[in-house]
Design a protein that fits this description.
By secondary structure, the chain is of the alpha+beta class. It is built from ten helices and eight strands. Strands 1-3-6 form a three-stranded antiparallel sheet. It has a three-stranded antiparallel sheet with strand order 2-8-7. A hairpin with a 2-residue loop joins β4 and β5. α2 runs antiparallel to α3 and α5 runs antiparallel to α6. The longest helix is centred in the middle third of the chain and has 31 residues. The chain binds protoporphyrin IX containing FE (HEM). GO terms for molecular function: heme binding; iron ion binding; monooxygenase activity; oxidoreductase activity, acting on paired donors, with incorporation or reduction of molecular oxygen.
Length: 314
């Protein structure tokens, strides 16, 4: 069923009587219909706060917030070093594949610190496809295997943690990574395009100008009105957050992080990282020129698949 997309995404962000998409039940149904084992994917979906119904959501959200808070100090201390290590290439003469050489390794390092376990760039290539609604069987199996490997790595690293704690850590890996990669990749491309006179010519915005999370979905749990539009119980609705990219109003762009019960728990970290990146780059007079930029094929996130710049000095 195609989702209802209202003219103003805020209508959905403010609406009551909406539930999260029952991802776990859908994948369980698919696994039964296709006769393939997707149990690791179903378990992971059952641990992600964003996928949990109201009665189970609050507790998971509280625990994951505590997990993030527990890593706050180490993350804030490391942030400037992570930025310098991975983004210095963007201030040195030559061609740079920005996603491969800077954004992906920086995000992998941040998420590793957050979870307390080293995660390679390649280890989590498929995890966020977990939200895809148009994935073929082969990809589903690859995702299942990848999640299985991450679970095994988590169990070996934290042998005394409960299955629930490990599930929450896994959900941090899933929720943080692609949202950051996409938001930072797309926003950096916009900034680089505006910086032909040099990174230091930019007035770096407090909030990223683009989002990697172009929409969020919900399902109506009653017959409701979304703005002017009637929506029947069971019908999916979509808040098109990418619409806020056109807005100069930072309050609207804050909605890149959602709103209400499921408001992003990584917002402070993502914004601090964005500002740290701005401080570092705007200190440099190097001039970036965007050579290639193309989004990867993805029905959930906006993530550059190719993003190359040429950096020159005055
Ligand atoms: C710039 C990067 C990010 C963007 C644009 C972003 C965006 C979002 C959005 C839109 C939601 C709400 C989804 C919905 O209501 O359906 C969300 C939820 C969430 N995000 Fe982020 N996010 C980002 C980075 C992160 C990071 C780095 C973390 C981990 C530290 C994180 C953790 C979470 C969690 C745990 C939730 C679920 C909260 C809940 O369901 O209660 N996010 N994010």
């Amino acid at each position: 069923m195609n989702p209802v997309i209202p003219d103003t995404p805020t209508d959905i962000l403010k609406a009551r009587d909406l539930d999260v998409v029952p991802y776990a039940a859908r994948v369980a149904g698919l696994s039964e219909r296709l006769g393939i084992d997707l149990s690791v994917t179903v378990d992971a979906l059952n641990a992600i706060p964003l996928c949990l119904p109201r009665d189970r959501h609050a507790e998971a959200r509280r625990d994951i917030a505590a997990m993030i808070a527990g890593r706050n100090e180490v993350l804030r201390a490391e942030l400037p070093h992570i930025v310098r290590r991975h983004f210095a290439r963007l201030t040195e003469t030559g061609r740079v594949e920005v996603m491969r050489e800077a954004v992906a390794p920086a995000v992998a390092e941040l998420i590793s610190l957050l979870v307390g376990m080293p995660i390679g760039v390649e280890d989590t290539n498929h995890v966020s496809r977990i939200f895809s609604q148009s994935m073929g069987v082969a990809r589903r199996k690859t995702l299942e295997a990848e999640l299985g490997r991450l679970n095994a790595q988590l169990r070996a690293t934290f042998p005394s943690s409960s299955a629930r704690e490990l599930g929450l850590k896994l959900s941090l890996m899933i929720l943080g990574r692609d949202a950051m990669m996409g938001t930072f990749g797309c926003s950096l491309a916009a900034m680089a395009q505006a910086a032909e006179a040099g990174w230091n010519s930019l007035d770096w915005p407090d909030l990223p100008p683009r989002t990697g999370v172009p929409y969020i979905d919900r399902v109506a749990n009653a017959d409701v009105m979304i703005g002017e539009q009637p929506v029947a119980k069971g019908q999916p609705v979509r808040a098109h957050l990418a619409d806020f990219e056109a807005s100069d109003d930072p309050r609207l762009r804050l909605s890149f992080f959602g709103a209400g019960a499921h408001l992003c728990l990584g917002r402070a970290l993502a914004m601090d990282s964005w500002r740290a990146l701005g401080r570092f780059l705007t200190d440099s007079s190097a001039r970036p020129k965007v050579l290639t930029f193309e989004l990867r094929r993805d029905d959930v996130f906006n993530i550059p698949g190719t993003f190359e710049i040429e950096v020159s000095k005055q």
